[in-house]
Amino acid sequence: MRASLIQIAVTEGESVESRRQRAAALVREQAGADLVVLPELWTTGAFAYEEFGRQAEPLEGPTYGAMAKAASDAGVWLHAGSIPERDPDGPLYNTSLVFSPSGEPAAAYRKIHRFGFDKGEAVLMGAGRDLVTVRLPGTTIGVATCYDLRFPELFRGLVDAGAETLVIPAGWPERRRAHWTLLAKARAVENQAFVLACGTAGTHAGVPQAGHSIVVDPWGEVLAEAGPGEEVLTVEFDPAKVAATREQFPALKDRVLGLDPPRRLG
């Protein structure tokens, strides 16, 4: 299976529409890939909080339309990263979009864990509730977004739902890049799954981005890693390695669930 992670740069001097069209062109250039992935909130920048409301769009808005056409033109499965979604009946959401090679919508995922510690995204956007998986030829992907990476319970849920490849778009800051790499490896090893983690380059509202998109196999081996700037990271991987790993080292079978809460002594 061939995957291309588009580590697009978000810069303040480029309009949202210009970046939208540039991203669509980059997707079309990946014809021949099986799966293409864009980062989190690449239309606005993940830390450009003041832009969320101004640039929010309905689920089937301009980014949806541009990405559906790009997926169809390239003939690829496309995880189009995430957008600030304006729900007419609710709050804003940080929503990921997935399209089939025919350009049909395959899934939408509203980010569950919002970053900000009672400010920023955490107060400006609502929290999703649903785990999302998508069946592709050869593998089932589990969808998560950026800050979700720090919460292993979510990924256990995705694995229980059949996920074999974990796809994580992000707008991860440079100052915590070591965590990005460490957590991507940890989620791969503990879930015996491939991890495709696609970040942004550039600077979001004064926050330098980590870049360094990464693909990790079920043993925690890094198959490919990008640098800090804009680039397309393309990697070939064998989804059958997930089943082989889980059979060879069946750690997931030894999970102990439903433990009683700790008892106080004395």
TrEMBL record:
Database matches in PROSITE patterns: CN_HYDROLASE (PS50263), UPF0012 (PS01227)
InterPro entries in alphabetical order: C-N_Hydrolase, C-N_Hydrolase_sf, UPF0012_CS
Domain of life: Bacteria
GO molecular function: hydrolase activity
Residue span(s) of domain CN hydrolase: 1-239
Annotated family: Belongs to the carbon-nitrogen hydrolase superfamily. NIT1/NIT2 family.
Protein name as it appears in the record: Hydrolase
UniProt source species: Streptomyces lucensis JCM 4490
